[in-house]
Structures are given as structure tokens and as C-alpha cells.
Design brief:
The protein is mostly helical. Helix content is 47%, strand content 9%. The strands form two sheets. The protein has a two-stranded antiparallel sheet with strand order 1-2. The chain has a two-stranded parallel sheet with strand order 3-4.
């Protein structure tokens, strides 16, 4: 199956929203918080500076391991169901999306996870273990499509299978990190547990709580916990 274009994804999500008569009119206080946005911009500039420093070594290693694009992009759903293109350093083989149906899904519910996904390259496994593959997402943060801290950004396929209570995840901007990332990251294989963590974040949210999650994320990344 060919990946959806951004416009096709927008139409698909809008159709799902209309069909299920889902209203996402409630504005979470984090969405319009100027201090949170200021922290996002500052963090994004720092993150992009780090990305620029490692981009050339990552590009060389990627080309030697599996020639092809350095970056990988995918359509995700953000605040209010708005679609956007998320960016990462490529960690899988170039035709990974077409091979997805050959890989066993170890997760429960509306997500796809495999601890030993054969599509991940040798360099890609290192990038994931160190979370370096996530660095290009700071561009999404700078553009305002994402936040440093938020909920996990779902794919269009995930949203297509949403039940009514799942839509609450889209009441805030998705984040590079959040409750899901600091509480197991990729080891959390139950979709309903991820939804619960995302909803819990919204209820606990404050700028101070965001800062605590950022600090915890740094510790998790340094310890290389929960990534594969």
C-alpha cells in the first residue's frame, strides 16, 4: 500500500471525524499557554542545534549501512485531529512500509510494535537506542505542530480504528516526550495503557509538570531505557 499524501490524510481524518460525529472543540489550557510555547521554541532551537551537529555523521553511517534517504517522514495526527508530517532520522530499510505486513505485531490494540523488527538497520538500532532518531522532530516543535511534552502522535491508521474515548488524546498537541515515553517507552505494548497515560497527562498538566517530564526524559534517554 502506498503511503498517503498529506492532503489524502487530511481528508481521511476529516471523514472519520464527521462519520463518528466527534467534536474536539474543548481547548485544553496547555494549547494556548504562552510560557509552554516559549519553552517549546527554546527547546526546539537547542534540539535542532544538536541535530545539526550529528547530521553529517548520521548521514554517512546511514549511507554505508543502507543507502537511501537520511530522513524518514510519516503523516501523523496532532491537536484536534490536524494532520502533519513528522520527521525522523531514518532507522529502517528504505522499503520498510511495504514490508510491514510481514512483521509480527507484538502490541495489543491500535498500535504496531515489534521488539526485534527485522526492518531496523544496524545504524537504526543505535539511533533508536540513543533516541538520536527523534532529533528532527524538534523541527515539528518549532513549527508548532508538536510540543516538547505532550501525547504520543498517532498515525492515520491508528485514528481510523479509534473508539469515542480515544479521541481525548487529540485535545492537546502531541509531544516528543510525555507520560508514555518516561513510563516504559516502547516496552508499553498495550494501546489502552498508552491512551490512559496520555489522558492522565492532560489531567496533571502544568508548566512545572512539563519540566519534570523533560528532566525524567533526559534521565531515561541517558540510561537508554525502553527503546528498541
Amino acid at each position: 500500500m502506498e503511503p498517503l499524501s498529506l492532503e489524502q490524510a487530511k481528508q481521511k481524518v476529516f471523514s472519520i471525524l464527521s462519520h463518528n460525529r466527534v467534536s474536539l472543540t474543548q481547548v485544553h489550557p496547555s494549547v494556548n499557554c504562552k510560557l509552554k510555547r516559549l519553552i517549546d521554541i527554546a527547546g526546539a532551537l537547542v534540539g535542532l542545534s544538536i541535530a545539526a551537529l550529528v547530521a553529517i555523521p548520521v548521514a554517512i553511517a546511514t549511507q554505508l549501512d543502507d543507502p537511501g534517504p537520511i530522513f524518514y517522514s510519516q503523516i501523523r495526527c496532532g491537536y484536534g485531529g490536524k494532520t502533519f508530517r513528522i520527521w525522523k532520522f531514518r532507522s529502517m530499510v528504505t522499503n520498510a512500509d511495504k514490508l510491514k505486513h510481514l512483521v509480527h505485531n507484538e502490541a495489543k490494540g491500535g498500535i504496531f510494535k515489534n521488539r526485534n523488527d527485522p526492518r531496523v538497520t544496524r545504524v537504526g538500532r543505535f539511533l533508536r537506542k540513543t533516541s538520536l532518531d527523534e532529533l528532527p522532530q524538534f523541527w515539528n516543535v518549532l513549527k508548532g505542530e508538536m510540543s516538547l511534552v505532550g501525547t504520543r502522535p498517532p498515525t492515520v491508521d491508528e485514528v481510523m480504528g479509534y473508539k469515542r474515548h480515544h479521541w481525548e488524546r487529540l485535545n492537546v498537541k502531541p509531544g516528543i516526550t510525555g507520560e508514555w515515553q518516561v513510563n516504559g517507552r516502547s516496552t508499553v505494548l498495550d494501546f489502552e495503557e498508552i491512551v490512559s497515560l496520555d489522558v492522565a497527562y492532560q489531567k496533571k498538566w502544568s508548566v512545572i509538570y512539563d519540566l519534570k517530564l523533560i528532566f525524567k526524559t533526559i534521565l531515561v534517554v541517558l540510561a537508554k531505557r525502553g527503546a528498541f
